[in-house]
Amino acid sequence: MKKILVVLALALALITGCFKIEAEISVNPDGSGKIISTVGMDKETFAMVEGMGKEMMGGKAGMEGVKAENPFSEETFKKQSAAYGEGVEFVSFSTSTKGTFIYFNIVYSFKDINKIKMDPKSMGGAMGGGLPLGGDVPLSFSLAKNELTMKLPFAQMMSGAKNGEEGEEEEECTDEKCEHKGKHDAHEAAEKKPADDEEYEEAGEDKDDAEFEMAKQFIKDMYMSFKVSCGSAIVETNATFVEGNKIIIAEIDGGKMLQSEKKLKELQKKYGASGPPDKETMKKIMSEIPGFKMELGDEVKVKFK
Q1: pLDDT of amino acid 166
Q2: How many CA atoms lie within 13 A of 92 on its CB side?
Q3: What is the pLDDT of residues 121-176, one digit of tens each?
Q4: Which end of the chain is more exposed for a tag (fewer CB within 10 A), N or C?
Q5: CA 184 to each of CA 176, 200, 269, 272: distance values in angstroms, whole numbers, following the listed order
Q6: Cα dist from 48 to 34, 72, 223, 289, whole Å
């Protein structure tokens, strides 16, 4: 409850889709480097958050015992350095504007990439927005003789496992008094619905269309990325997405994704209620949808100079 503004900022930004996160690790052959984090928010959303923050700090919100802390200050971002691992030091903080967005640009430095462990949820800087990369295990790095190994726990999201443990399937309940039985019965009834039930089909399509229109508002201005810049040039790598000397671990560009609106609707109907698809399905989705990239391997190796 101490950082109520952080929660408000994130909630409003996510609800309106007016949120951008760019995180990049730049590593040199000797293991030193920088962490460059950029957090962007629509100016209108920022003004709303700032206004509510001033009100709370002035005691007008009536939230006794809640300490409002400004998530956009240099001091707040300085405190964030410890979240990235041992030996990380704050370097600079600045703001900039582009179009309707205001950006907070933060730079940290480190001397040893081997000591860096990044929680995907912390990649939004002090705002704590993070990237939807799955799992609670942090990304870890190992550098030896100009070869960087990155251990990526994102495969957990594809398999439905958590912290390396396989998820357990829910068993069907046969007890007439059990509260879960109704859910199972309803699910079975849905599966047994008549194929020619046109009214049922139309209602389902209308609901899907309405949900998709809501999703469009969320993703139209959304941009999230996490990249690793390796020295001056990459010599060899098993990474799926490479951009010059940068490895793209994840990139989600909502504007580009909406260019394939028809395909997105098809995917929503196919996977919307079934949870995260498996790796092979994800590869197919990424090949068909522009603006969506994610490294699905557990380990990425890069030789660079």
Answers
A1: 42
A2: 7
A3: 555 444 444 444 445 567 899 999 999 999 986 655 555 444 434 444 445 555 55
A4: N
A5: 11, 19, 21, 19
A6: 32, 13, 21, 33
Residue 181: CB atoms within 10 Å: 14
- Listed in sequence order, the residues at least 6 apart from 282 whose beta carbon sits closer than 8 Å to its beta carbon are 158, 276, 294, 296
CA–CA distance, 256 with 262 (Å, rounded to integer): 13
The residue with tokens 């070869």 is 147
Burial class (CB in 10 A: 0-12, 13-18, 19+), 237: middle
Residue 291, CA distances (Å) to 1, 76, 123, 213, 286 in order: 36, 31, 19, 19, 8
Cα separation, 289 vs 256, in Å, equals 8
CA contacts within 13 A on the Cβ side of 30: 5
Cα separation of 233 and 247, whole Å?
11
| Nearest alpha-carbon partner for 229 in 113, 119, 139 | 113
At residue 256, φ and ψ (nearest 5 deg) are -70, -40
Give strand ranges (E) for 111-233: 117-118, 139-144, 147-151, 223-230
pTM summary value: 0.72
Tokens of 254: 């909502």
**How would you label 50-76 residue by residue, b for 16+ Cβ within 10 Å and e otherwise?**
eebbeebeeeeeeeeeeebbbbbeeeb
Helix residue ranges per DSSP H, 58-100: 74-79
Nearest to 9 by CA among 54, 82, 67, 71: 71
